[in-house]
Amino acid sequence: VLLVGPTEFITNNIINAVGLTTQNFLQMSLFTDPLGDGAFTRNWTVFYWLWWISYTPGVAMFVTRVSRGRKIKEVIWGLLLGSTAGCWFFFGVMESYAMHQFVNGVINVPQVMQTLGGETAVQQVLMSLPAGKLFLAAYLFVMIVFLASHMDAVAYTMAATSTRNLREGDDPDRGMRLFWCVVITLIPLSILFTGASLETMKTTVVLTALPFLAILLIKTGGFVRWLKQD
Questions:
Q1: Which residues cross the membrane (predicted)?
Q2: Low-confidence residues of the chain, pLDDT below 70?
């Protein structure tokens, strides 16, 4: 997208966005919308905080597994810098291209999102690229690969934590991993097939993350004490 799209506009917009984010990071992080109804803070800031908290158990064990032999500071810096740079690049390129198409009257992205949904907006933006069908197919392929990788990591984590007397360095049974993979697949499918709205899914994420938040605070305290003792 960066190469075949409006490269100059995308690059300039990313640089400008990084500057604005750096300049206003503290203010945006602590924004609570005190004069409004707080809907933006609830639907975006708080929701995505809880969204990522719900990922912590699976991601933590997966990262620990694949980072064996590395120093703790190397893992921390790798996650912080790598994740931040990856998110900035992905969202910067895609959002800048969508903004370019909107400003030039090619696609009214906000209207499409409000009337047809975000997934249709993504489809139309990708289809507006040269060889749009090829980009759309590549996008779907990448989504499938990342989804499969994430499900494998979560299933591995669930299988490891539910296996008794699992020795350090050993892998959980494949049957147990397959069982948890089926379980975590059926949960979102059941929500979709019942015709539940997106708000129901958001509520599910929030309810899942709240217990993890308490556990995360306890584990963080224990981790700090362990570092001091080691």
A1: 46-63, 75-94, 134-157, 178-198, 204-227
A2: 196-198
Cα separation, 192 vs 201, whole angstroms: 9
Residue 155: the pLDDT is 86
- Tens digits of residue pLDDT in 59-81: 777 787 778 788 888 888 888 89
Residue 147 lies in a domain: no
Whether residue 73 lies inside any domain: the answer is yes
Residue 198 is predicted with a pLDDT of 66
Inside any domain, residue 8: yes
* 25, HSE (Cβ side, Cα atoms, 13 Å): 6
Q: Are 38 and 172 in contact (CB under 8 A)?
A: no
- For 110-153, what is each residue's pLDDT tens digit? 999 888 888 889 999 999 998 889 999 998 999 888 888 878 88
Domain total in the chain: 1
DSSP 42: I
Q: In this structure, is residue 209 part of a structural domain?
A: no
Taking CA atoms, 83 is separated from 62, 70, 78, 140, 204, in Å, by: 15, 18, 8, 21, 25
Give CA–CA dist 155/174, Å, rounded. Answer: 10
Please state the pTM of the whole predicted model.
Answer: 0.76
Give me the half-sphere count of Cα atoms (radius 13 Å) on the Cβ side of residue 227. 9
List, as one string, the DSSP characters of 99-119: HHHHHTTS--HHHHHHHT-HH
Q: What share of the chain is helix, strand, coil (3-state, %, to 5)?
A: 80, 0, 20
